[in-house]
Each structure stands twice: as structure tokens, then as C-alpha cells.
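Hi R.,

As promised on Friday, here is the backbone we talked about, encoded as C-alpha cells. Could you run it through your design pipeline when you get a chance and send me back a sequence?
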């Protein structure tokens, strides 16, 4: 809100003037003549029946600069796929709906499995990966934005601000991460980012000393944001995690492939709210509990590839250091909340920190037990080498599905 500070090693593009969305869109239309722009929407069928999706589609229908919208649809039977096609027919843009549970795309899944290429369990990571492969094959977009489909505060300026740094041909960015304040209903949200990622990164820095990867991650205002934009040609060589480590994993892949001066973050919304995961204190295979384990393992794996050596004793030290830093941060967040007239349940905050501390140790010990675990889906470069016709087959499958089942 009116600050212009640059911190860390990633450029921050602020929202200083609340520029009208119509002005941004006018420029984006001009940019789109030189650099075609697309949008990826990974969604569950259930989200079409939720409170967020209809307003999102109504906002997207007003967007004048998109050349293509690619919708990855999960957990839909034939009847639901037909309803989804009817639902998205509100969009005036060129759109494609990937029926991931349909027989044609399942055939593509099986080809990958037969070739020994693991694509992980169904979920957002796999959905996004197929959408990216489709986008690269279609050649309808030079730059892609991606955002979630459960944003109940969605306005189209979120998309405009997210894709602008990648769309502007005078900018040199390959990747843009969105950020925003997770505040809604008088509460400060974003527990996993506030209470897990930030204190964990600082604990790791305290134990291992300065690491460029840790400094890089800590440069992002909201590293777990599900909104980002990128050049389409960059999707071919990234390995996307299939679990809750997706956002952290994508950041790591962009750092692996590009200099940090090609990476930025942009303030894309004053308010942002979406569905909230349960803490799941009694089930580390669900909710924020599983998320915290997957994210911790993703960070540990990347540090290991950079030469950091872990042991069970190290992970116990990480847990203890994290716990102290996180508890201190709760007081900081509580003061910030009170000054802004927000409520915060300190008891619940500490419960979350206690769970995350236990899960950091679980994640570390699991990493030691299975250091060769590969939750990454292979890059599209590797898939294209093994199955040169797969992407073209996907284009044909999606076209045939839409032709056969459209109302």
C-alpha cells in the first residue's frame, strides 16, 4: 500500500497508484499483437458449483487481450464434462477444456506410464503439467498466466497485473510471481506461508549460513501464491512437483533455469480470499498437515542438490530453531493484526506452529529414509523425446472431446 521498497534478489513490482484496469488492458491489447497471451485454469468440477467460479468467468469474459484460455478439468464424469462445456461457453475467447478423466486423455496418461514416465497422483500439479504441455503444443500463446479457480474476491485486474510483466516486450522477465495480503473477514490468513515457510527459511539460514537458494525464496512476499505467469517456451524444461510442493518447486525450477534478473513478483490484489484447508492435526495425509510436509521436503531436496548434507540430528536442530523463530513471529503478526483492526487467535497460531514443527521433523526423516523419492513429473522435453507424438495426440483428443460433447 504505497511502499516501494526492494528487498532480496528478486524485483518487486508494486501497486503504487491503483491504476485503472482499463488502462492496463489497453496496453495489454497492444502487447498481445506482438506476444500472444494465454491463461491456464486448473480446476475441479466441484469448483464450478462453488461460489467463486461464476464470478471469475464473468470477469474473464470482459478481458480483451487473451488469445487462449486452457481449462484443466479434474474429477468430472461424462455428464459433468458436458455441463462444464456449457458453463465455459459463457467465455467469448478461444477456450479449450481438457477433460483429464475422459477416455481420450486417459489414453495419453497410459502412454506415459507405459514409457516408464511417472506423472504422479491426480492433483493440481498434474493438471497444470498437462495444461502446460497442451499450451506449448497449440502454439496459441507466447506467454501464459495461471491462477486458481476458488478466488472469491476475484477481479480481472488481478490477471492484468499478473501477466503485464511477461507481456510487455520492453521487459526482460521470463517469470512473474503474484503476491497479495491474505486478509479476509477481519482475519490474517496465509498460515503456511507466515508460520511455516518464512521461519523455516530463517532457521535453515541460521543453521547452514547464507545460501543463495534460501535468500531467493525469502525474497518472495508470498512464495505459496498459486498465481504466476511465464513465457510459454519456458514450460518445456521445468519439472513440476505433483504434490503440495508445486509452488515452491516451480520457483526452484525457474531459479535453476534463469538468472534472478529474469524473475519478478508483482502486487496483484488488495484483498484475496479463497477456500481454506483444515489444519488436520490428526492426519498428516490431508490438509495443511500434508501441505507442510510436502513443502518442507521440497525445500530439503533442493538444498541437498546444492550440496547441503542432512542427518537426523540436523533435522532435530532445524525443528528446534524453527520453533523458536516461529513463536517469536506470532507476536509480530499479532501486533500487526491488532494495529490494523484484525483479529488473531494466538492459541490457534501456536497450535499450527506446533504441528508444523513436528512435520518438519517428519519431512526430514522421510527424506533421509527415501532420498531418491522423485515427486517431480518429467519435463516436457523428456516426454517429447520419449513420445514425440504425444502432444499432438493431446491436441486431437481435446478437440475431439469438445466436438463430441459440446451442447
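Update: got your reply. Pasting your designed sequence below so it's all in one thread:
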Amino acid at each position: 500500500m504505497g511502499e516501494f521498497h526492494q528487498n532480496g534478489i528478486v524485483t518487486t513490482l508494486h501497486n503504487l497508484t491503483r491504476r485503472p484496469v482499463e488502462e492496463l488492458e489497453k496496453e495489454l491489447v497492444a502487447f498481445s499483437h506482438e506476444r500472444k497471451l494465454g491463461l491456464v485454469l486448473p480446476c475441479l468440477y466441484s469448483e464450478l458449483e462453488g461460489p467463486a467460479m461464476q464470478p471469475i468467468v464473468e470477469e474473464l469474459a470482459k478481458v480483451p487481450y487473451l488469445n487462449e484460455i486452457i481449462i484443466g478439468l479434474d474429477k468430472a464424469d461424462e455428464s459433468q464434462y458436458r455441463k462444464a462445456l456449457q458453463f465455459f461457453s459463457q467465455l467469448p475467447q478461444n477456450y479449450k477444456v481438457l477433460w483429464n478423466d475422459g477416455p481420450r486423455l486417459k489414453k495419453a496418461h497410459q502412454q506415459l506410464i507405459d514409457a516408464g514416465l511417472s506423472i504422479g497422483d491426480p492433483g493440481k500439479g498434474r493438471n497444470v503439467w498437462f495444461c502446460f504441455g497442451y499450451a506449448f503444443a497449440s502454439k496459441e500463446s507466447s506467454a501464459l498466466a495461471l491462477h486458481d479457480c476458488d478466488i472469491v474476491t476475484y477481479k480481472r485486474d488481478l490477471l492484468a497485473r499478473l501477466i503485464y510483466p511477461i507481456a510487455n516486450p520492453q521487459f526482460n522477465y521470463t517469470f512473474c510471481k503474484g503476491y497479495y495480503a491474505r486478509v479476509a473477514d477481519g482475519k490474517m490468513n496465509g498460515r503456511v506461508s507466515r508460520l511455516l515457510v518464512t521461519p523455516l527459511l530463517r532457521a535453515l539460514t541460521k543453521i547452514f549460513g547464507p545460501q543463495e537458494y534460501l535468500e531467493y525464496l525469502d525474497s518472495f512476499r508470498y512464495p505459496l501464491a498459486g498465481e504466476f505467469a511465464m513465457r510459454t517456451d519456458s514450460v518445456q524444461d521445468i519439472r513440476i512437483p505433483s504434490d503440495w510442493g508445486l509452488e515452491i518447486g516451480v520457483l526452484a525450477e525457474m531459479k535453476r533455469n534463469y538468472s534472478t534478473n529474469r524473475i519478478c513478483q508483482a502486487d496483484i490484489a488488495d484483498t484475496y480470499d479463497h477456500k481454506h484447508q483444515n489444519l488436520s492435526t490428526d492426519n498428516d495425509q490431508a490438509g495443511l498437515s500434508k501441505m507442510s510436509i510436502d513443502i518442507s521436503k521440497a525445500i530439503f531436496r533442493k538444498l541437498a542438490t546444492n550440496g547441503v548434507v542432512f542427518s537426523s540430528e540436523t533435522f532435530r536442530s532445524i525443528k528446534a530453531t524453527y520453533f523458536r523463530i516461529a513463536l517469536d513471529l506470532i507476536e509480530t503478526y499479532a501486533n500487526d493484526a491488532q494495529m490494523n483492526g484484525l483479529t488473531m487467535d494466538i492459541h490457534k497460531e501456536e497450535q499450527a506452529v506446533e504441528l508444523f514443527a513436528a512435520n518438519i521433523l517428519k519431512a526430514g526423516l522421510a527424506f533421509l529414509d527415501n532420498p531418491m523419492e522423485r515427486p517431480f513429473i518429467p519435463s516436457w522435453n523428456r516426454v517429447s523425446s520419449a513420445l514425440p507424438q504425444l502432444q499432438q495426440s493431446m491436441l486431437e483428443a481435446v478437440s475431439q472431446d469438445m466436438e463430441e460433447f459440446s451442447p
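One thing I noticed while checking it: The mean pLDDT is 92.

Thanks again,
M.
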